[in-house]
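Sample intake sheet
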Amino acid sequence: MIIAGVLVYAIPQFSLPTWSLLVCFIPLFLGAEGFLQGYFRFCAGFAARSIFDFSGSSSEKGKVTDREAHSLDMRKAMRINLYSLVTAAVVTAIIYLAEAV
């Protein structure tokens, strides 16, 4: 999120084209993804690899073997990705439109 803020400040300062602000989408998406994973206490990367870790230490990972549980995990991971995508797109559009005016 800080990177997006720096870009929003720096792009007009260096007289770069307004469309350059669309680059803000990437850090906004990654920031939203991290925030939402923390909020939901769910790691989309673990879901994609069919692993879990209830111990809090990354050295003791278990494998998700149940197909239905993995399917539910993937559905939740996709939902987090979608929420992140929409959040980043909306904020990027707001930034772009605010600067374009």
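Comment: The radius of gyration is 18 Å. Residues 41 and 56 are 12 Å apart (CA to CA).
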